[in-house]
Design goal:
single chain; about 250 residues; alpha/beta; seven-stranded parallel sheet; about 20% strand; globular
């Protein structure tokens, strides 16, 4: 099977449709996880793209949020009240709009008061405990983005071969130049690969170019190190796209 055969593309017509389809996709998979496994381990990414979707998702009365544990796919090493923090993003969107009291919302978050290496180690222990309590080693759903350089989570290309084989749950990465916060805490590629379901949220011309470049690349080890998302395609992914242009064959199905 080619990697592209395992990719489901969902196109949105406009911003409102993007949010509506995003809430439907995420909501359906959260409810399915709760129905089949009794709970949902939900990993969320940050950035501007998912904000409106998270806010609308938190207001979904059809989701039993007491059976959902939210954790971060990655975060910047900064105070949780910083505008750069994904923890703040969750507080201001998903959690703020949910009907749950803050203390009732189950979440597993990095302790950024610790030094970066200690924070990564501690977060790995927290995630290990989360998986153990749930009786499984897989997240039920991961929401992912993709940077215009091709990074997913905080796994920046080119990856090292060891990034594909590590047994660790978390890793300390550097975003390099051009990013406001260099120190990053991220779950590892094997954790992402083991997840039951993965949804990419992609919006804008730059993300379209990056996604199409990734999809048109080969499947060699060199390609998989250059394009981290390549390592997920064979296991199946869904991409919700709000792009300036869509293929003619699917434009009538938006």
């Amino acid at each position: 099977m080619s990697s592209s055969a395992a990719v489901e593309l969902v196109y949105a017509a406009d911003e409102s449709d993007f949010v509506s389809k995003g809430v439907q996709l995420l909501g359906d998979r959260i409810r399915a996880a709760i129905a089949s496994r009794g709970s949902c381990l939900l990993g969320l990414s940050g950035g501007s793209t998912p904000k409106a979707i998270y806010t609308a998702l938190g207001a979904e009365a059809s989701i039993d949020w007491t059976k959902v544990t939210v954790f971060l796919v990655d975060d910047r090493h900064c105070p949780p009240d910083s505008s750069d923090s994904n923890q703040r993003l969750l507080q201001e969107t998903l959690i703020a709009s949910s009907s749950l009291e803050p203390h009732s919302f189950s979440s597993v978050l990095p302790n950024c008061a610790l030094e970066p290496a200690a924070c990564v180690e501690d977060y790995g222990k927290q995630l290990s405990a989360m998986f153990k309590a749930a009786g499984r080693d897989q997240a039920d759903l991961l929401v992912l983005g993709m940077g215009e350089d091709g990074h997913i989570a905080s796994l920046f290309p080119p990856l090292a071969p060891a990034d594909l084989e590590t047994s660790s749950l978390t890793v300390h990465k550097s975003a390099g130049e051009g990013f406001a916060v260099a120190n990053r805490i991220s779950i590892t590629m094997p954790v992402i690969q083991r997840s039951h379901s993965r949804i990419f949220l992609l919006k804008g011309a730059g993300k379209q170019t990056t996604w199409e470049s990734m999809m048109s690349a080969g499947d060699s080890i060199v390609d998989r190190l250059r394009w981290p998302a390549k390592n997920l395609l064979a296991g199946g992914v869904t991409a919700l796209c709000l792009f300036p242009t869509v293929p003619t064959a699917v434009s009538a199905k938006i």
